Amino acid sequence: MARRRSSPLQRCATAAACSEFIRLAGQAMGSPLASWPWASLGSYKARANNYIYLLYGPLVAKVAHAWRETGSLPLDSWCLHLLLLLALRSLTFQLWFSYANMLFFTRRRRVVKDGVDFRQIDAEWDWDNLVILQTLIAAMVANSPVFPGAAELRAWDPRGWALALLLHVTLSEPAFYWAHRALHRGPLFSQYHAKHHSSPVTQPLTAAFGTPLEALILTAAMAAPLAGAFAAGAGSVSLVYGHVLLFDYLRCMGYSNVEVISHKAFAAVPALRYLVYTPTYLSLHHREKDSNFCLFMPLYDALGGTINARSWELQKEVDQGMNDRVPDFVFLVHVVDVVSSMHVPFAFRSCSSLPFATRLVMLPFWPLAFAFMILQWFCSKTFTVSFYYLRGRLHQTWSVPRYGFQYFIPSAKKGINRQIELAILRADKMGVKVISLAALNKNEALNGGGTLFVSKHPNLRVRVVHGNTLTAAVILNEIPSNVKEVFLTGATSKLGRAIALYLCRKKIRVLMLTLSTERFLKIQREAPAEFQQYLVQVTKYQAAQSCKTWIVGKWLSLREQRWAPAGTHFHQFVVPPIIGFRRDCTYGKLAAMRLPKDVEGLGSCEYTMERGVVHACHAGGVVHCLEGWEHHEVGAIDVDRIDVVWKAALRHGLTPA
To answer: What predicted TM-score, i.e. pTM, was given to this entire model?
Structure first.
């Protein structure tokens, strides 16, 4: 079939897009090709990076036009193949990223134990610049009159594969090696390569992160074997796909920070050490910067005398799990719902590094997330989600493979408690010091706020904590000192009881909304005799018509909120938070605290919390660990310890959010 030749206008549009891209990069602040055109846009950088995809307009338009003319996809069009290749390359990076951050698979084989923090995530936000630039350059080349059309090529030509391999080994590898070494010398490093090395922990996305000059060097290394094969008349469509995707695959593997090649393979075939690098090999270069410069083949480091002598010994140690360590603190969570299950570090980093919200990018993956929910229900156990370090202590978040709605299914109660119990016993066996139960994992109706497990296993070394003492403290310290009366819903719950008993001791009148006189009297009798008068039972919302301080522990509808006078502030400890229907009132957020400034490796947001902010019950567990307290914090809240825990939290640098 004859090739559809690009019109001069179409070729001009594609070439203009690529030329403008490179021209702007060359004119960006600093040295030529040292930064991307939108690098100086600050907070608008991510948005601008999304708009860069509009440069693909000419390619999409050409494919759409050909599809309209022929009624079928133009498989003979390079524009279509380049768009498909763009999607496959993005998928390659994403799959490697997901695998590398699935701590339940990879935790024991991580090369660098540190976590990826928000600073690195923001710096690498536009990692896809490399892929964008390479696609535009390829489009310009493919639309030139001298380049053969896809219809004129074979699907497969073994001669091209052999020639590309030969050119990669003899041309791309040595050329990249010497170019890379040059980038580590003098001003070239500070101007063009320091940005790439600024990422302390390599990730698959780090492989594409760098300056325009680095991108062009990688483009040349990737393109040279293809150019040679096509010039020799041995090019094929499969060679383009195979070579480019294999190139990306090896780059992502090296930067994954997870050892994927067994040390036994190198012991069995020593020559293999010089044919393919490993994540450990690359990580040594990234951190020490004076060795291991190769693209994929350590042979050239050996020939150049720049191979790091510790590469294979360290690779063996990492592969055997010797880099793993026991966490000091574990926060045991559960999944909220299907959509929020995608708000994890191993899914979309651009989503998990921001407070949870339903984003359009997540919706197409809803069926996949739903399938995972079904799978977890039948064959899954508690798994590690994320981690960070605080003052030398490793803090991890584990998740029970259960979703919020399942906690309200009576028949699921036993199975959920079993999952929580196994997690506690696993933590105890490992040597974890504190495990804090989150959200419904400490539900009173489920396990008495953790009492069930402590009673069943009296010899636990790990301390089980519900963290609600600090939750109560956060809520109480939000209340202005001049308040004399509050209206409390959820008044007989664990938190409601503690809040009521604490406030009455401050001579604050507490209107406790409850229909159960028996439960009210039980709480009232716990208060010292001289303060019992400050606890008042009410059975209707109308009783709070003149009270401007509402403490909400039970969901409120619009009708119920209407009883609050204008200017009311709603403090909350209800999950999920109430909807702010009243514009003449203010609404507090769920109790939370900001972690100390010296937290390290924190790169994901805890559900809807802002960066660096965690739920108060999480913070309560952190304080328990930092203080080294030996008691369990389960069951009813000890009112006498509310101020003790609050002061300890502030002393350790946690601050109200």
So the answer is: 0.89
